Amino acid sequence: MPQAPIKNPVTLVILGMILRVLVWSMMLLSILANVGVDITALVASLGVGGIAIALAVQTVLSDVFASLSIGFDKPFEIGDFVVFNDVAGTIEHIGLKTTRIRSLSGEQIVCANAQLLQQTIHNYKRMQTRRIVFTFGVATATPPEKLRLIGDMVKKIITDVGETQFDRAHLLAFDQDRLTYEVVHIVNTADYNKYMDIQQEINIRIIEKLIENDIELALPSLVVRAPVQVEETREYSNNADAKDADNRVIQ
């Protein structure tokens, strides 16, 4: 059976407030009209006063209307994991003026609703799949016939792991100390921990297959050049000693 849409409490609160204000305003104007008060001037003065009040509380009203927009449009809901700018965390509370986010490090981040809607928000809770791109390198001395095996080898590994869709695997670049392969695949899960388990299994199987086919993984290399110390030859030393002796004789 289809589930009923979840009602946003913030939207209900705002709509309730607006409805109450309208009802009480109409009741007050009706009462004043019944007792003989000319409400035309009163309505005009209320309009001017309302504009002044609106200008005074412009920031607050913008946040309130932003919360109303969040309630109707639902770019995120309580429990969603969102990322924007340098903020990453889970939505804990959506209020009339602010939204509270629990960050990965544990602290609570409070954002004004109007400013929040001006950001480009990444909602990872609604992500259904992940496109993964990773690279690895093999030794530059690997023969071409073995290089041709790597693409099909990686394709079979990714297909066999499950919950993945293989896209491509190619020899990407000739780097200084390795031949770099680029692999692209899709993980059919939004769960981050499960994605990491799948990627770890793929990496381990690639290492096993490379070892099985005598293909060496490229490891970072460090070249150290030490200064060469040149020793004086004995001939030069003897000539210098003889020269010093001649100088002493002349003196």
List the helices and strands and how they pair.
Elements: H1 9-34, H2 39-56, H3 58-73, E1 81-84, E2 87-94, E3 98-103, E4 108-112, H4 113-117, E5 122-123, E6 130-138, H5 144-161, E7 164-174, E8 179-187, H6 192-212, H7 234-250
Antiparallel strand pairs: 1-2, 1-5, 2-3, 3-4, 6-8, 7-8
Question: Could you list some keywords that capture this structure?
Answer:
transmembrane, 2 domains, elongated, MscS_beta-dom_sf, alpha+beta, Alpha-Beta Plaits, disordered N terminus, three-stranded antiparallel sheet, 48% helix, Inner membrane protein, 251 residues, five-stranded antiparallel sheet, MscS_channel_C_sf
Give a description of the structure.
With 251 residues, this protein is an alpha+beta fold. It has two domains: 1-126, SH3 type barrels (Roll), CATH 2.30.30; 130-212, Alpha-Beta Plaits (2-Layer Sandwich), CATH 3.30.70.100. It is built from seven helices and eight strands. Strands 4-3-2-1-5 form a five-stranded antiparallel β-sheet. Strand 7 and strand 8 form a beta hairpin. Helix 1 crosses helix 3 (58-73) and helix 5 packs antiparallel against helix 6 (192-212). The radius of gyration is 37 Å and the shape is elongated. The N and C termini lie far apart (118 Å). Residues 59-126 form the Mechanosensitive ion channel MscS domain. Residues 132-217 form the Mechanosensitive ion channel MscS C-terminal domain.
